[in-house]
Amino acid sequence: MGVRATLSEALDRLEPPARVVDWSLLAVVLAETVTGLVSFTVGTPEGWPLFWLHRSLGLAIVVLLGWKLSRVGHRLLDRKLWQRSTALSVLTLVAAVGTVSTGMLWVIGLDVRLSYWTLLSIHVGFGLALLPLVAVHASTRFRPPRRVDFEGRRTAVQYGLLLIAGAVAYRVQQGVNGLLSTPGADRRFTGSQPREGEGNGAFPVTSWVADDPDPIDRERYRLSVTGLVAESREFAVDDVERVGGDEASVLLDCTSGWYTVQEWSGVRVGDLIEAAGGVEGEGGMEGEGGAEGDDGVEGDGEDEPAYVRFVSVTGYRWSLPIAEAEDALLATHVGGDRLAHGHGGPARLVAPGRRGFQWVKWVTRVEVRSERDPAQWVVTLVSGFDSAGNHSGSSG
Fold first, then answer.
1. Is 300 helix (H, G, I), strand (E, B) or coil?
2. Which of 86, 128, 238, 385 gives 20 to 30 Å between its CA and that of 49?
3. Distance CA 89, CA 329 (A)
4. Where is the composition biased (Acidic residues) (predicted)?
């Protein structure tokens, strides 16, 4: 009994003031949202600290939520204490538990699907719902933070221990996965699980937002190379394959939680641009200078090539710096198979070191540009929701 009392007292001393817990939950949920979304764009091992931070903060949420429930849990269990805002509190709790539990199950290695959605996708959905719920919930019982609550070594030690405990717990879990050879043992640093085999059937057809374009008629398909090139050109599928013949073994890491290494073949983007006369240097596009055209590519006579934008048949698009883009591949085959429609056929972008949503599917336009395209981020959020059925062209 004495040991239990001592442990209880130690835990009580570790618990921050109520106001600190409440504001910390909001701050950590916001940080989790930011690190989670940014992690979608990280595909090289150098970005591993971001993923460790995200997972450590996730375990910190568990502790903060425990402190919160130990203080207010009785209000949820006693119907007589319910208020008008209690329903919002319950909904926020469900989103929090859903976010944390699906994240933990995914890290352990559980791989289940709900229609097209993986457990990781469900985790992301819960997380995106949690942030506004926590913000609204905080506003119903708004108590501004006090400086005194955040001063002193005690608070710094408490939060330092939270982060350290989270990192240690995640490292221990990795060791357990390896020791028991669970499905989570083969994950990349991004959390993605392997998909073995070659060709179209080796990895799943996944969707980004509401991907579902109609199959493309190969006979009518045309690939345009436009913008800051010597001469805009169009290529049929056979022309693309004739210009190509390049092959590369590249890892595709999809944001829905899987990765695969495949042999992709098609045409190097730099060779495709060269087939259009190459990029223009100073002086812009010869014979096509002037105002911006219908395709949104500048040609004011002073632009210098800096980016290449890949546009899907659906309007989805992504840009790469020109040096990176020239070494990327516009693939028409995977594992010796002609690229299936679900994987982006007749042609999709293969961009080493980039995540799957940046590998634009069903590419119909390659544009050499002088400026970035910030609107591409908007496209990733609204793709697939228009009434005309022009769904997005991204994802793994």
1. coil
2. 128
3. 49
4. 283-303
Residues 6+ apart with CB under 8 A from 223: 234, 235, 236, 237, 239, 240, 330, 347, 363, 364, 365, 366
Q: How far is the C-alpha of 319 from the C-alpha of 297, rounded, in Å? A: 13
Which CATH number belongs to the domain containing residue 248 in this structure?
A: 3.90.420.10
Strands 233-235 and 223-227, by their bridges, are antiparallel
Q: What is the DSSP string of 222-242?
A: -EEEEESBSS-EEE-HHHHHH
Residue 394 within any structural domain of the chain: no
Q: Where are the alpha helices (DSSP H) in 78-152?
A: 86-108, 119-140, 147-150
DSSP tag of 88: H
* Residue of 109, 15, 8 lying closest to 65 (CA atoms): 15
Tell me phi and psi for residue 265, to 5 degrees: -135, 145
Compute the distance between CA of residue 118 and CA of residue 100 in angstroms, rounded to an integer: 15
pLDDT value of residue 121:
85
| Domain finish residue from 192, 225, 251 | 192
Are 293 and 361 part of one and the same domain?
yes
Question: How high is the pLDDT of residue 379?
Answer: 82
Phi and psi of 277, rounded to 5°?
Answer: 90, 0
Instruction: Tell whether the torsion through CA atoms of 216, 252, 192 and 94 is positive or negative.
Output: negative
Task: Answer yes or no: is 396 within a domain.
Answer: no
User: Is 300 found in the same domain as 262?
Assistant: yes
Residues 309 and 267 in one domain: yes
Instruction: Give the HSE-up count for residue 224: Cα atoms under 13 Å, Cβ half-sphere.
Output: 14
User: What is the C-alpha to C-alpha distance for residues 151 and 137, in angstroms, rounded to an integer?
Assistant: 25
- What's the predicted TM-score (pTM) here? 0.79
At 30 the pLDDT is 93
The total of structural domains in the chain comes to 2
Planar angle of CA 286, 288, 290, nearest 5 degrees: 115
Residue 309: per-residue pLDDT: 96
In the DSSP assignment, the letter for residue 1 is: -
Q: Please list the helix, strand and coil fractions of the chain in percent, rounded to the nearest 5, in that order.
A: 45, 15, 35
Distance (Å, rounded) from C-alpha 285 to C-alpha 342?
Answer: 36
Phi, psi dihedral angles at 148 (to 5 degrees): -65, -30
Q: List average pLDDT for each run of 10 residues in the chain, which is 396 residues long.
A: 50 68 87 92 91 85 84 77 80 92 83 76 90 86 66 64 67 66 72 91 79 85 95 92 88 92 95 90 40 43 83 90 96 94 94 94 94 86 56 53
| Same-domain status, 138 and 224 | no
